[in-house]
Design a protein that fits this description.
34% of the residues lie in helices and 19% in strands. It is an alpha/beta fold. Strand 3 and strand 4 form a beta hairpin. Helix 5 runs antiparallel to helix 10. It binds zinc ion.
């Protein structure tokens, strides 16, 4: 059977400072990722490059010797052995996303020779050196982590043991790159597990194991506890599913507390059939990944723990399945959420907002300084953006630019949508406080955000991420797999920057 949690990370990230030492480091590696200055596309190569004649010849053979493309991919002789060299250049003003996309393609080629050690070097890159080396490291870390397999002959284990960044003048701060890669890998691994492996019970068991490893406090609100809490919206969805459904509350409480309480909330639907409003086959494909929001919350919590984040963090994972059966909830039912709101059910496939309604209400009771929730919530968000970006919503309009900026910086791009109150007209019910959704589906991502906003006190800054980019064929930015784990790196970019963090948590910058 396949493990519920990914294997412990084995890849070391080391730095070799100075141009002289970089040449030696490149010569020792199995593969070298070379970021060349844009002038190379016009034939002007940086001085002091090893294997210059061979590299120029390889670049001359390239079909598209252009900046933004892979310029060359060749083996050069180093003593009695061969070193795989892959190189590209990228425009000085390229966005971080473009840099990471190119890094993903370079990493795939660098690792194709089953390299144990890959050197990343950016000779002559000047001020951009740090960003280019970071992109190379992020792409290598993402590509060289295994994904779950149940095949009799599983794919060979990744060979990479060491990433060596070389040639820069000053040490780079890469703890967030490494922790983010681990958190992202955890999210991708969990998302790829089949739904008969990652059942709600198994998911809770796996999270408990992580909690022991990281020293988190654990509280699991099972059906009985949820009934006591009056969480009728969550329980309506969970009725037809397995017994293991519930809300898992994980609490990270470091000794050093420089920041106020942050709450991360995630949708964890281990399989979504749509319920009695059953999905057609095509739309049911990939629905074991409908738990990615919770996996991103979990991966982010693990990354913050690894970084020794100096502030308390809660993760609230809404873990359930949306199945069919005699107990399944139906359209026109009216259920009462934990905060007393009555909800008229309209479409059982809008289960995510039902689960999150109660989870947000319970998470709010601890009075966090801010709440971020992650969910693969609506098809409407994917229609609006495609799967290259995710949508963001907030009850603080002033935060939206900060959220988008963290997206640009991290390469996990998010785009803001409105949450104006008049959208509520579509959710007016004749029999309850609110309708769950509409059947028309117009602006459903916005209606979902308006619906969720009801369960967060107006005094609490709240960010909702509709993970349109959770699944992207062929990978996205530096991540090479279909499930992208989108959100961990973005959140670290949001929290890791003093000004952005201050805006979110209401601290003095
Ligand atoms: Zn659904």
């Amino acid at each position: 059977m396949v493990a519920l949690l990914p294997p412990e990370p084995k890849i070391q990230l080391v730095q070799t400072l100075g141009a002289e030492a970089a040449r030696a480091a490149a010569a020792r590696a199995d593969s070298v990722i070379l970021w060349l200055p844009p002038a190379v596309a016009a034939g002007s190569w940086p001085r002091g490059l090893p294997w210059l004649a061979a590299l120029r010849a390889a670049a001359a053979r390239a079909t598209r010797p252009r900046c933004g493309e892979v310029l060359l991919d060749t083996d050069v002789a180093e003593g009695t052995r061969l070193v795989r060299v892959v190189a590209a250049c990228i425009a000085d003003d390229a966005e971080p996303f473009a840099r990471l996309e190119l890094a993903r393609r370079l990493a795939a080629r660098a690792l194709a020779v089953r390299a144990r050690e890959v050197c990343v070097w950016a000779p002559g890159a000047g001020r951009r050196t740090g960003a280019l080396l970071e992109a190379g490291a992020a792409a290598l870390l993402a590509a060289a982590q295994p994904m779950p397999s149940l095949a009799g002959e599983p794919p060979p284990a990744p060979s990479l043991r060491r990433v060596r960044l070389a040639g820069h003048a000053r040490r780079l701060e890469l703890a967030a790159t490494l922790a983010g890669a681990h958190g992202n890998h955890l999210a991708r691994w969990l998302a790829a597990l089949p739904p008969n492996v990652l059942t709600p019970e198994a998911y809770v068991r796996a999270a408990r194991r992580l909690a022991r490893r990281h020293g988190w406090r654990v509280r699991f609100l099972d059906r009985r506890a949820l009934a006591r809490a009056g969480a009728g919206a969550f329980l309506a969805v969970a009725r037809a599913g397995s017994r293991g459904a519930g809300i898992l509350h994980l609490a990270y409480r470091p000794r050093r507390r420089a920041h106020p309480l942050l709450a991360l909330v995630g949708k964890g639907v281990c399989f979504d059939t749509g319920g009695v409003n059953l999905k057609p086959a095509r739309h049911m494909q990939g629905m074991h990944g409908d738990m990615q929001g919770s996996a991103v919350a979990l991966g982010t919590l693990a990354a913050l723990t690894e970084l020794g984040w100096p502030g308390p963090v809660d993760a609230w994972l809404a873990i359930a399945e949306n199945l069919v059966g005699p107990e399944a909830y139906r359209p026109h039912e009216v259920v009462r959420a934990a905060d007393g709101t009555t909800i008229e059910v309209v479409h059982t496939d809008a289960e995510g907002r039902m689960l999150l309604a109660d989870t947000l209400a319970l998470a709010s009771r601890a009075r966090p300084a801010a709440i971020i929730d992650y969910a693969t919530l609506t098809g409407a968000c994917i229609y609006a953006l495609g799967s290259r970006m995710s949508g963001v919503f907030s009850n603080r309009r002033a935060l939206l630019e900060t959220l988008a900026e963290a997206g640009r910086a991290s390469g996990e791009r998010v785009w803001p949508f409105p949450t104006e109150p008049d959208y509520d007209e579509a959710l007016r019910s004749d029999i309850a406080d609110v309708k769950q959704c509409t059947l028309e589906g117009e602006a459903d991502h916005i209606l979902a955000a308006r619906f969720l906003a009801r369960f967060v006190p107006v005094g609490t800054p709240w960010v909702h991420v509709d993970l349109a980019a959770a699944e992207h064929e062929g990978g996205l930015a530096h991540v090479p797999t279909r499930f992208t784990g989108f959100g961990v790196r973005w959140t670290l970019a949001l929290l890791g920057d003093v000004r952005r963090r201050a805006r979110l948590l209401g601290e003095a910058a």
